[in-house]
Amino acid sequence: MVWGGISTRQRTPLYHVVGNLTGVRYQNEILQPLVIPALQAIGPRVVLQDDNAPPHRSAAVNTFIQQARVNRMLWPANSPDLNPIEHMWDELCRRVQQHHPPPANLGQLLQWLQQEWNGVPRAFICNLIHSMRQRCVECLAHNGGHTRY
Q1: CA-to-CA distance for 129 and 33, rounded, in angstroms?
Q2: Is cis: bond before 101, omega within 30 of 0?
Q3: Could you tell me which residues come within 8 angstroms of residue 139 by beta carbon, excluding any fewer than 6 positions away?
Q4: Do the beta carbons of residue 19 and residue 1 sit within 8 Å?
Q5: Where would I find the Tc1-like transposase DDE domain in this sequence (predicted)?
Q6: Minimal CA–CA distance to 55: which of 17, 7, 93, 6?
Q7: Do residues 31 and 17 touch, judged by C-beta distance below 8 A?
């Protein structure tokens, strides 16, 4: 598994998660070294959008987020996944699948993932993020059902 974050101004490096990601590991390996510095670089009005994965919502992580004074988007438990990062993962997958032959080992796969992650145009990422308002409008219009996103 890899973790990554995007914004209209920057993207984090991909982080290879080895084993199970717990709340403590999420805080120590991802939030502290990657997320908090990225959010601080963007500015005080930035909002963290994550999902309801158990490591993201652990008591320790919630406390850490509050102490770090991070604005966090509320994410309903049974909401459709409208997070722009999901479309970024799809794009990354398509880009890596274009490599032939397939990766020879995990190291090569991770190298290709980082290379392709860095190669996704900023305009593509900005479009994903700027489409959030329309995604939410369509989701509401379809009572949470299928949308074109």
Answers
A1: 23
A2: yes
A3: 79, 80, 82, 147
A4: no
A5: 4-100
A6: 17
A7: no
